[in-house]
Design goal:
The structure is a single chain. The protein has 202 residues and is of the alpha+beta class. Helix content is 57%, strand content 24%. It has one domain: Roll (PH-domain like).
Length: 202
């Protein structure tokens, strides 16, 4: 009886207790709001953003597919085991649903990192935002006059076809190399940075 009630309880929790899954989502919304508000503080007065180096949509689709597949597998296995009604099956299904929550949280973490990882190419300098965690970010500034070289790399057929890849900037400062991966329109962004560097160094 314990196994049956546990299995049914878990199933009802999954099907009707949506509040469990709203936790990570609400956390993401709150963190996103904070990051969006903080974005304005990154720039000087009258500073104009010319281009944004952000992750290609392919990165988000890859995350969605991987995490969705994991959730479907664990949910299906959990429902199957809870239907059998045994004590062991009920406990195992509980752990499977816990993995679903882990997948949800992992997806929100990956989305936050990928979305807020960005370089802002402005008329003054480059603002590089490295989103290291949901509430942890590092901001660096690259002056055009100190940029020595700019590189971009497209690896494989997918990156070449869709036009995204790795962007690297070498500077004369303490941090000599800045890198951001999976940047959309990476070739044009690299050309624009070189153009602004040449203007600044004249």
């Amino acid at each position: 009886m314990f196994g049956i009630s546990l299995g049914k309880g878990i199933k009802e929790l999954l099907l009707q207790g949506e509040s469990i899954f709203w936790g990570p989502f609400l956390l993401l919304v709150a963190c996103s709001s904070c990051n969006i508000m903080e974005k304005e503080s990154l720039f000087q007065e009258n500073e104009i953003v010319i281009m944004e180096a952000k992750k290609h949509i392919f990165v988000y689709l890859e995350d969605v597919l991987i995490h969705s597949f994991g959730c479907v597998v664990f949910i299906t296995a959990g429902l199957f085991l809870s239907e059998r009604g045994g004590q062991t099956e009920g406990i195992v299904s509980l752990f499977l649903y816990m993995f679903v929550l882990i997948f949800f949280t992992s997806f929100f973490y990956a989305w936050t990192k990928n979305y807020f990882d960005a370089w802002y190419i402005t008329n003054v300098h480059i603002v590089a935002v490295n989103q290291r965690g949901i509430l942890d970010r590092e901001v660096s500034y690259m002056e055009y006059s100190r940029i020595q070289d700019v590189f971009f790399e497209k690896e494989g057929l997918v990156q070449t076809f869709f036009g995204f890849g790795r962007l690297k900037v070498q500077t004369a400062g303490a941090e000599q190399e800045f890198i951001i991966d999976s940047v959309r329109d990476v070739e044009n962004i690299a050309k624009k940075i070189l153009e602004l560097r040449d203007i600044a160094q004249k």
